[in-house]
Amino acid sequence: ILVIAGNGGMKDFETVGPWGTGIAAAEFGAQVTNIGANAFAGCENLTHVNVPNMEDWLAIRFENAEANPLCAGAALYIGGEEVTELVIPEGTTEIGAYAFQGGQFTSVTIPNSVTNIWANAFAGCGNVREVTLGGEFVIVSIYDPIGDWSEIGDFLCCRCRKGQKMPAIWI
Fold it and tell me: Could you tell me which residues come within 8 angstroms of residue 58 by beta carbon, excluding any fewer than 6 positions away?
């Protein structure tokens, strides 16, 4: 088990984290705030990621998709319990970039308190079959190479510009 603990964040890596690609499980401490780029690149054997609570997970800034261990196909565990039905806690105001990218969830619930969902927060969540959105939110910081602003993750779709409020739409 790889244990990531301590105060603050970690540096970016050119190709992969110093622990290599053979890890099967990762445990995150409560005060980790940043995971460096490519930290979990190539970690296809990673199946289990545990964090003390959802608030701690939401506080982590992932520098790119490969910084998030869920992108390798790992399941997220909160306090030792696998999360299959993702419920963002009420009071959460934003969901960071790459926060749940690649997550193996079957449903996602986002409360009214969420006002910002950053780019790729839910990209690659192909198992999601049900999404419950609490209200309006703002899509921010979107990289859109084709210019139509149509795809946000795998289940949110809109025709809006950066910073424009819109009702949540589920497809």
Answer: 88, 89, 92, 95, 96, 99
Q: Judge residue 91's burial from the number of C-beta atoms within 10 Å of its C-beta, 0-12 exposed, 13-18 middle, 19 or more buried.
A: exposed
- Rounded to an integer, the average pLDDT of 78-97 is 93
pLDDT in tens, 110-161: 888 887 888 788 888 878 777 777 765 544 433 444 444 444 444 443 333 3
Residue 126: per-residue pLDDT: 76
Instruction: Tell me the per-residue pLDDT of 43-52, one tens digit each, with 9 for 90 and over.
Output: 999 999 999 9
> Is the Cβ–Cβ distance between 106 and 127 less than 8 Å?
yes
Position 100 pLDDT exceeds 60: yes
CA dihedral (50, 54, 59, 61) positive or negative: positive
User: Residue 166: CA atoms inside 13 Å, Cβ hemisphere, count?
Assistant: 16
Mind giving me the DSSP string for 46-101?
A: --EEEES-HHHHHTPEESSGGGSGGGGTPEEEETTEE-SEEEPPTT--EE-TTTTT
Q: Which two tokens stand for residue 157?
A: 């779709």
DSSP letter, residue 6: S
Say whether 25 sits in a helix, a strand or coil. strand
